[in-house]
């Protein structure tokens, strides 16, 4: 796992260089200051960008270190295969609640402020990555809603969205194109979540819904010098489980679902898990599926992990 961590940190340098040439030409083709700009509608030689990524973050004890977020960002390039190389990434930084003693608030404020500056220093020259620091406490729900509004305005062709947490990074390859093809083939799929080490028990079945099978191509993990793509059968399991762990969703469905929470200053999984259970009991489905592969993501636990 140490070697993977080093690869995740190293890949960020290469990714930044690779994305620069496309983005400078992409945004010089008439990006307007108008809030209704259709910059996201531009078509590049590799096709239309129809997917975006949101990474939510908030103050954690390891700040001002950016290593945790960097590992998440770099795992996107390393592990989500066939994703458009210029898929936009939005990193939200939530303000913490201003409670506790004055010294604690000041220390947190200073470390968060430096963390934001560090992120800008790392990603300012990579127009693919957008840093969104919020001045008011928005929680996960509010942060996602704000990012969705920005994506909708500036990348209007977005149809799919990855939601990632700042302390969950990918450790196994996921074939993006194959997964999107499965969603386009099966209208019932609105949401696919990825599992970490101990999350298998969280997959709750949903009524009489049946699993969906599809083929993907990921690199073999044998001892060959050159990785070889192999065709692999995958299953998407229908479930009554809704979790805020890393997931892929239909953009419009997600926008409407988050907005329907009314109160956004909370974890979406709290009200949406109850809604998912109620729908399944009533013989309906929210279109939730689990990616049937264990340990696809790893949890760093932002509350406890430090980088000394």
Account of the protein in words:
The protein has 308 residues and is an alpha/beta fold. It has helices spanning 2-27, 67-79, 102-123, 139-154, 176-185, 251-259, 269-281, and strands at residues 51-57, 80-81, 89-93, 129-133, 160-165, 168-170, 174-175, 191-193, 212-219, 229-238, 247-250, 288-291, 297-299. The chain contains seven helices and 13 strands. The strands form three sheets. Strands 4-3-1-5-11-8-12-10-9 form a nine-stranded mixed sheet, sandwiched between helices. A two-stranded parallel ribbon has the order 2-7. The protein is globular and about 55 Å long.
Give the topology, please:
Blueprint: H1 2-27, E1 51-57, H2 67-79, E2 80-81, E3 89-93, H3 102-123, E4 129-133, H4 139-154, E5 160-165, E6 168-170, E7 174-175, H5 176-185, E8 191-193, E9 212-219, E10 229-238, E11 247-250, H6 251-259, H7 269-281, E12 288-291, E13 297-299
Parallel strand pairs: 1-3, 1-5, 2-7, 3-4, 8-12
Antiparallel strand pairs: 5-11, 6-13, 8-11, 9-10, 10-12
Helix pairs in contact: 1-2, 4-6
């Amino acid at each position: 796992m140490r070697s993977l961590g080093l690869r995740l940190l190293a890949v960020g340098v290469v990714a930044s260089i690779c994305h620069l040439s496309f983005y400078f030409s992409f945004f010089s083709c008439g990006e307007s200051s108008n809030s209704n700009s259709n910059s996201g509608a531009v078509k590049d030689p590799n096709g239309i960008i129809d997917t975006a990524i949101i990474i939510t973050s908030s103050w954690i004890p390891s700040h001002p270190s950016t290593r945790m977020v960097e590992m998440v960002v770099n795992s996107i390039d390393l592990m989500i295969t066939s994703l458009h190389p210029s898929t936009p990434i939005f990193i939200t930084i939530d303000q913490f609640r201003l409670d506790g003693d004055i010294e604690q608030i000041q220390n947190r404020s200073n470390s968060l402020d430096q963390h934001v500056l560090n992120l800008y220093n790392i990603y300012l020259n990579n127009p693919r990555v957008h840093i969104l620091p919020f001045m008011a406490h928005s929680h996960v729900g509010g942060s996602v809603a704000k990012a969705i509004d920005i994506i909708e305005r500036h990348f209007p062709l977005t149809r799919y969205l990855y939601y990632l947490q700042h302390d969950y990074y990918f450790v196994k390859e996921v074939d993006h194109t194959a997964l999107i093809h499965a969603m386009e083939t099966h209208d019932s799929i609105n949401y696919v979540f990825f599992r970490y080490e101990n999350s298998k028990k969280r997959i709750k079945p949903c009524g009489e819904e049946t699993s969906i099978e599809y083929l993907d191509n990921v690199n073999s993990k044998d001892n060959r010098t050159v990785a070889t793509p192999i065709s692999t059968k995958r299953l998407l399991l229908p479930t009554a489980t809704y979790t805020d762990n890393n997931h892929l969703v239909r953009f419009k469905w997600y926008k409407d679902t988050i907005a329907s929470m009314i109160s956004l200053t909370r974890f979406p999984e709290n009200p949406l898990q109850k809604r998912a259970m109620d729908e399944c009991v009533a013989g309906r489905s929210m279109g939730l599926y689990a990616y049937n592969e264990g340990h696809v993501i790893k949890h760093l636990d932002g509350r406890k992990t430090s980088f000394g």
